[in-house]
Specification:
The chain is mainly alpha-helical and about 230 residues long. The protein is built from 13 helices and no strands. The chain folds into 2 domains: about 180 residues, Tetracycline Repressor, domain 2 (Orthogonal Bundle); about 30 residues.
């Protein structure tokens, strides 16, 4: 897939106003001129800022992806907590304007081309997560761990967003943080150097050099039994 150069981030109010116009007039019936008028821009400025009607709908996702990449590149948090916080911040951004978030969801549900674009956005999130996870995984990790965790992060985020849209949860960031911590705990063994070590301890045994091998092994076994 060809990666386009990122456009200048649109102001939240601009993209929200454009989404409202699309919802009022219908996706197919709304022209670029209609949207430019809705956001108070000239047609040429609109195309420089957004590019297309699709780009208007997904402007918040472009911003969220850029925010997520920046956060993961600079955070000093442990890997598991960084993934939780980064994902929760994406959700906060996407629902900061509740009306626009609900209108965007309705538009995507009724517009096949937008649903296709949504799949591409989903894969972009997964790639950002997987790249970070691969850098943090311990040598003992299985090859599928990064892809599995990246997909799971997106799945939990999307499930929480759907629950929020359907009024099943009131505090979506809190709910997704709770669920993501449960998810990342399943991968902690591969994300954390301490967990990968498994809490192993070194036992130093002092014994009589003249002792028999059986006596030495017996003493070590007895000490291990007390350590446990």
């Amino acid at each position: 897939m060809v990666t386009r150069a990122p456009r200048t981030a649109a102001a939240p109010d601009s993209s929200a106003a454009a989404i409202r116009r699309l919802a009022e007039r219908g996706y197919d019936a709304t022209t670029a001129e209609d949207l430019a008028d809705a956001v108070g821009m000239s047609r040429s400025t609109f195309f420089r800022r957004f590019g297309s009607k699709d780009d208007v709908v997904f402007a918040d996702h472009d911003q969220a992806l850029a925010q997520l990449e920046s956060f993961l590149e600079t955070t000093q948090l442990p890997a598991g907590e960084a993934l939780v916080e980064g994902t929760a911040d994406v959700l906060r951004l996407l629902i900061r304007d509740p009306e626009a978030a609900r209108l965007r969801s309705d538009l995507m549900r009724h517009t096949p081309s937008l649903r296709d674009r949504e799949l591409i956005i989903t894969h972009r999130y997964e790639r950002v997560f997987a790249r970070y996870i691969r850098e943090k995984l311990q040598p003992c990790s299985p090859g599928w761990a990064a892809a599995a965790l990246a997909a799971s992060l997106v799945a939990v985020h999307n499930a929480t967003l759907r629950d929020w849209l359907r009024d099943r949860v009131a505090d979506a960031p809190r709910a997704v943080t709770r669920d993501l911590r449960q998810l990342t705990a399943l991968f902690e063994h591969w994300l954390s150097p301490e967990a990968a070590e498994g809490g192993r301890r070194v036992l130093v045994a002092v014994y009589d050099a003249a002792g028999s091998p059986d006596a030495v092994l017996g003493a070590v076994a007895a000490q291990l039994g007390r350590e446990q």
